[in-house]
What does this fold into?
Amino acid sequence: MVKPRLIAMICLAVGTVLAGCTGDDRAAEPSDSAAASSTSASPGPPAPECNDPDTCTTRQLADRAGVTLGTAVDASHLDELEYRDTLLATFNSVTPENELKWESIHPGPDEWDSGPADEIIDFAREHDLQVKGHNLIWNQDLVDSTPDWVLAIDDPDQLRRVVTEHMTTVMTRYRDSVDRWDVVNEPLETIGSGLYDNHFRQVLGDDYIAEMFTIADTAAPGEELWLNEATVEYQPDKAAALVSLVEGLVEQGAPIDGVGIQGHLVAGTVDAAALGQLVADLEALGIEVAITELDIPARDPADPLGVQASTYREALGACLAERCREVTLWGFTDRYTWIDATFGEGLAPLPFDRNYQPKPALAAIRDQLTAVGEP
Ligand code: XIL
It folds into this structure.
């Protein structure tokens, strides 16, 4: 799904702001003392009671604070005990990382494969986790999830029929288990602020985004329908374009309930005030806002893990200071992260290391949840 030119193109456009652009910066493994300072967050079964934040699991801190703390999950790791235990002690929500994407679940016109998505959703049910549905429409040149057979459809009515069938089948199947759907993922240019000129726009016209929301609403009335966008955190023009795109959708009565800001950040580079303002501007349109794919490559040469932790603190703070009450991470252990394959290995963007030991970033997340949960 990730096409190699992506990295080169993004690096060219934003220099070293994104991870992987120089290729040789590597986060150090956490020191023993860093891990030891966070031992209260060690994975394990949830404690029966949680009165003292120091003894609460991170999941309990999130529940106590009324915050959805989520993670992307890959079905193929669910049979790994440490993966499962760490996930269950830390998060109250999951997002299938790839399993609900068009290419995965509906790879051919008459071919469906819901097995891996079902595994995650059964697991979530069994453990009382929320499930976020990612995603229904995502087409770009460099990384996306639209299969070639859909890209070959040039007739608008046929494309509408195929989209309707896709959404109806997937959304109906998971009607009782998925809390919300990312209807359109990344409709704006990756670098820039125009509409991405993707296949759906080319065949259906500029109004395709509103049309996708209407089709989703008809396919599964009453579901929560969201738009999800990337790289707005360090492109002010793109952030403004996102606000006006959503404003336009709201004004024309499109059934949009929320916006996800992905949050693929880089340690030490976040303008927390601008991020908070973006959250506030979107909320002012009467919709919900969440951070949906947070990960933070550790790139500070002097203090990779410390600066990474403070960036996690700032990102959560920017969300939680507004009405935003969901932060979903794009994975949780450096053992499994899309950053390795996309921007180069060793950038260690997540709050647990490769051996599931908590990093300072986890302590930062716990501090922010504790602050919200204080009576
Ligand atoms: C990524 C997955 O993590 C990878 O496993 C896959 O190969 C490509 O997609 N923005 C998104 C997510 O909306 O769906 C992407 O997930 C990461 C960027």
Residues 1-2, 97-98, 143, 185, 230, 262, 293, 338 surround XIL (CB under 6 Å). The domain at 4-373 is CATH 3.20.20.80 (TIM Barrel). The chain has 15 helices and eight strands.
